[in-house]
Amino acid sequence: MNREGTCGVYISVALRLLTALALFIDAGVHLFLAPGYQDTQPGTVSQGTLFLLEAAAAVVAGIWVLARGSRAAYALALAVALSAFAAVVLYALVDIPAIGPIPAMYDPVWFFSKTLSAVAEGAGSLLALAGLVRAGRRGRPDAGSSFPAKRRRP
Fold this sequence. Notes:
Number of domains: 1
C-alpha cells in the first residue's frame, strides 16, 4: 500500500473513532441526567424518557459508525448528533411550550453536563458530516471499514 493510501486509512479510522466517541459522550451525559428529569405532566412524555431515547440512538449510531463507517452509518450519526445539538441550543434560547406529548423543556442555564453534551453533539455533527462526505466520495463504505492486511513483498 502506498503512503497516501495508508494516510487515508488512518484518517478514516480516526474519523470513525472520534465520531463514535462524540456520540458515546452524548449518550453518557443523557444517561447521567435522565433520572433527574423523570417528573412529567399528565399526557406528556418526561424529559428523562426523551434523554434515554437520545442515549439509545447515540449508542446505536456510534456502534454502527465503528463497525461499518458507511454513508448510511455517518448519515444516522449526523442526524442523531445534529438533532440533539439543535434541541439543546433551541431549548436553552427559546421558551417553547409543550407540543403534543413533548413537554416544554426550556432551560436557559448552562451547567457542565449540558455544555459537555452540546460540545460533543456539535463536534459529532461536524465529524459525521466529514465522514459522510469522505465516504460519499468513494461511493462505498469508508476505506477504514476493514483494516487492510499487510502485503508481503515478492
